[in-house]
């Protein structure tokens, strides 16, 4: 969002006050549903963290939005009539994550199966209310992203776009994140500033250049120079220190 804002676009930081109550399907099993109070706390925490990285002033000022705003007052009948009618079950069950869960022992609940409809509705509402024409997400969200583009095409007759970014992985191919046990948190109560610094300082030489590209706003020339130093003088760990 920040990179697009720097390029002149107007970002909408979406926090999931309603989708957080459902949870998108995982590869293995059903999520445990959390209380409304817990999800509300998460929403406020995420809102505070996202706001630190965006600018809320100027011609392309960012805006924070919560999908609970357009779902809280929506009845089940209206949801089924106005939104559900545009979705085809055959298409929904072909989504990669849904297909995997359908073929698993546990299967998938109607609740998690419906998640892609909710995310599709998010894109529709953002399009209607703010003229949003591009939705961003990780590549593992591709099925949910395209549910929104299809819904807008059917309901509004307009073409909008989705962009999926590759999941960040380590050089050994493992996923970079909490499911692999190597997560760090922006919240200092969950990851202390010292531990945060040490984590980045200990980045492997094979990973550090990619981390600089993703997690900093250094110029290409600066990153190329740090890559050279990593190759020629790895003992100085200059790229790691810069990243940290």
Keywords:
244 residues, 4 strands, 12 helices, two-stranded parallel sheet, mainly alpha
Given the helix and strand composition, which structural class is it?
Answer: mainly alpha
Extract low-pLDDT stretches.
none
| Overall pLDDT score | 91
Largest sheet properties: 2 strands, parallel
* Shape, principal axes of CA atoms: globular
Kindly describe this structure.
By secondary structure, the chain is mainly alpha-helical. The chain contains twelve helices and four strands, in the order αβαβαααααβαβαααα. The strands form two sheets. A two-stranded parallel sheet has the order 1-2. A two-stranded parallel ribbon has the order 3-4. The protein is globular. The chain starts with a helix and ends with a helix.
Itemize the secondary structure elements and their pairings.
Elements lengths: L1 H5 L5 E4 L20 H16 L11 E4 L9 H8 L5 H4 L3 H7 L7 H4 L1 H16 L3 E5 L3 H15 L4 E5 L27 H9 L3 H11 L4 H13 L5 H6 L1
Parallel strand pairs: 1-2, 3-4
């Amino acid at each position: 969002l920040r990179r697009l804002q720097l390029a002149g676009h107007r970002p909408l930081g979406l926090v999931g006050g309603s989708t957080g109550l459902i949870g998108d399907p995982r590869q293995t099993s059903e999520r445990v549903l959390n209380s409304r109070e817990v999800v509300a706390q998460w929403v406020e925490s995420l809102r505070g963290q996202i706001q630190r990285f965006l600018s809320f002033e100027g011609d392309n000022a960012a805006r924070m939005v919560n999908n609970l705003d357009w779902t809280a007052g929506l009845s089940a009948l209206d949801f089924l009539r106005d939104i559900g009618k545009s979705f085809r079950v055959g298409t929904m069950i072909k989504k990669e994550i849904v297909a995997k869960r359908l073929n698993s022992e546990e299967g998938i609940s109607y609740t998690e199966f419906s998640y892609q409809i909710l995310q599709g509705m998010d894109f529709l509402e953002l399009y209607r209310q703010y003229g949003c024409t591009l939705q961003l997400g990780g590549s593992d969200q591709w099925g949910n992203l395209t549910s929104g583009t299809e819904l807008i095409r059917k309901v509004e007759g307009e073409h909008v776009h989705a962009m999926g970014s590759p999941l960040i992985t380590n050089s050994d191919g493992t996923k970079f994140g909490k499911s692999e046990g190597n997560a760090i948190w922006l919240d200092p109560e969950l990851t202390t500033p010292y531990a945060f610094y040490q984590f980045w300082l200990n980045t492997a030489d094979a990973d550090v250049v990619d981390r600089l590209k993703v997690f900093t706003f250094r110029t290409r020339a600066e990153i190329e120079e740090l890559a050279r130093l990593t190759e020629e003088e790895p003992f100085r760990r200059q790229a790691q220190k810069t990243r940290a």
